[in-house]
Amino acid sequence: PILYSYFRSSCSWRVRIALAMKGISYDLVPVNLIKDGGQQFSAEFKALNPMQQVPALKIDGITLSQSLAIINYLEETHPNPRLLPQDPKKRAQVRMIADHIVSGIQPLQNLSVLKQMGEKKMEWAQNCITSGFQALEQILQHTAGRYCVGDEVSMADLCLVPQVANAERYKVDMGPYPIIARINKALLELEAFKISHPSRQPDTPAELQA
Q1: pLDDT level of residue 141 (50, 70, 90 thresholds)
Q2: Measuring CA to CA, which residue among 175, 95, 172 is closest to residue 129?
Q3: Model pTM?
Q4: 187 close to 140: Cβ distance less than 8 angstroms
Q5: What DSSP state is assigned to residue 150?
Q6: In percent, how much of the chain has pLDDT > 70?
Q7: Rounded distance between C-alpha atoms, residue 6 and residue 13, angstroms
Q8: In the chain, what are the domain boundaries?
Q9: What distance in Å separates the CA atoms of residue 206 and residue 210, rounded to the nearest whole number?
């Protein structure tokens, strides 16, 4: 497999965690979202992913984009360890939390949106993440065990950790979200989350490396 990724992309990080958890080795091709006006806008990359976003994964003779589509494919082709619970209710809760983050929070504070916000970009990002985290904290009161849904790492957790990193980057006060903070801390102790971390990627600038 070949993963097209950017060290700081939260969507790419989700997929890196999934690949690490499933024990799938891959080649990484960095796509710098800042350099050269954004390498994702090159004709070469547009042919690979018409949406001009990372991640993209070449695997089993196909090219997939969209992090949850990639993670679902990995789940179906490499079912162990599982990232979706067997219980239908818990599985629905995992998908609900994942969607809450990948549809309701992350795109609103994405690089392409923030560029259009100009001087207000920090305030905008903080507001989007804060309103999303207020809802998420409330949801987790009913679903969380050690992790987002019960005591097994799931697709929801793969979405949570990169989003908390975004929150910290945009200086969101995590004080009002003790459950999110606790789960995030527990997940960052796991090997798959450590090796996939933005500070440990081949394209991480020297000053940001772990």
Answers
A1: very high
A2: 172
A3: 0.95
A4: no
A5: B
A6: 100
A7: 8
A8: 2-80, 88-193
A9: 9
pLDDT digits (tens, 9 = 90+) for 55-104: 999 999 999 999 999 999 999 999 999 999 999 999 999 999 999 999 99
Neighbours of 181 (CB within 10 A): 16
In sequence order, what are the beta bridge partners of 4?
A: 29, 56
Apex 52 CA angle, 50 and 54, nearest 5: 120
The CATH number of the domain covering residues in 2-80: 3.40.30.10
Q: Using CA atoms, how far apart are residues 34 and 20, in angstroms rounded to an integer?
A: 26
**How many other C-beta atoms can be found within 10 angstroms of the C-beta atom of residue 194?**
15
- Put the strands of the sheet holding 27-30 in their side by side order: 27-30, 2-5, 56-59, 62-65
Task: Identify the pLDDT of residue 110.
Answer: 81
Q: Which tokens go with 171?
A: 């200086």
Fold exhibited by the domain 88-193: Glutathione S-transferase Yfyf (Class Pi); Chain A, domain 2 (1.20.1050)
The pLDDT value recorded for residue 131 is 97
Q: How far apart are CA 4 and CA 24, in angstroms?
A: 15
Q: Which amino acid is at 2?
A: I
Residue with tokens 């793969």: 158
pLDDT per residue over 92-137, tens digit each? 999 999 999 999 999 888 888 888 898 999 999 999 999 999 999 9
Q: What is the C-alpha separation between 91 and 81, in angstroms, rounded?
A: 15
Question: What element of type H or E holds 4?
Answer: strand 2-5
The 3 state secondary structure assigned to 58-85 is EECCEEEECHHHHHHHHHHHCCCCCCCC
